[in-house]
Amino acid sequence: MAVVDSEACITLGIDIGGTGVRYGVFKGDKLIEDGHLPSHRDEEPEALADELSRLILDKDPDICGIGAPGMVAPWDGVVRYPPNFPRWREFPLKKVLEQKTGSDVWVVNDGVVNLLGEWRYGAGRGYNNVLMLTLGTGVGGGLVADGRVVWGSEGCGLEVGHISINPDGPRCRCGNYGCVERYIGAEYIIERAVGLMGEYSGSVLSGKQDLTLLDLADAAEGRDLLALRVWRQTGEYLAYAIVSYIHLFAPKIIVIGGGIANSYRFMKGVVDEILSERVMMYERRGIKVCQAELGEMAGVYGGYILATKGEGLWHFSE
Ligand SMILES: [Zn+2]
Hints:
Blueprint: E1 10-16, E2 21-27, E3 30-37, H1 45-59, E4 63-68, E5 78-80, E6 90-92, H2 93-101, E7 104-109, H3 110-121, E8 130-135, E9 139-145, E10 148-149, H4 180-184, H5 186-196, H6 213-221, H7 225-249, E11 253-257, H8 268-278, H9 282-285, E12 288-291, H10 298-309
Parallel strand pairs: 1-4, 4-7, 8-11, 11-12
Antiparallel strand pairs: 1-2, 2-3, 5-6, 8-9, 9-10
Helix pairs in contact: 1-2, 3-10, 5-7, 6-7, 7-8
């Protein structure tokens, strides 16, 4: 593929998330337009492919970079078994979009595009060892180690949401038990809040129908005890996972992104406590844990980087 860096070049960056698709149109290196589309999460993959084809034909980019859930490698762009898209199995998203639109398309794991965005333009700027966590419908992320993106032997990046923090815990959609995603994925946070309502009759959330994470954040802002307890528990689960990530990958900075990142402030206290107790030499290592800077646009910027840097980002040797 051509490396595209001309100022007139139009690039489309796309991040496919559980609750929606974010996209951005870049002219040269400037974001000139952004928007979102439905994810068609509970439908066959063709529904989203049709939606994305229309977007690509409408914006007419020279090249597209897409982050997709599930296991997906850059060389074939086949999306494999995304746990939160129940009707997807193995779907050749890159090939289908290229055939329908004639555009050049790259597809990688969504955790990787979020990582690329925050590493180059956000909180991870200037660091050579960065762990990105995206907290939303699912829990994903990616790793830069010693200045390089870690793609793994299959090119699919890492599945950081599917490490078990409780081997006797509930079954996760991925097949494992007690995954961190099974505790802090959006729907499970809500489920826990609903389960605790009986103990907090004075809560502003008590008896509320169709509770959302925004409700839980607003209530925590008002010091509601139920909401604070739910965020504290969520922070505990997140911290147990981060302890393992630090011991495995030794990042210098851990960037918390995704739709739930704005509520990291309600979890930060307990995360710091647990990391101090459980990570080897934590206080002396100067590891930073912070909120992402680009918010939900991280994956869009990452898609732009993927499209323009392309093969320069990977060094497969297996
Ligand atoms: Zn899992």
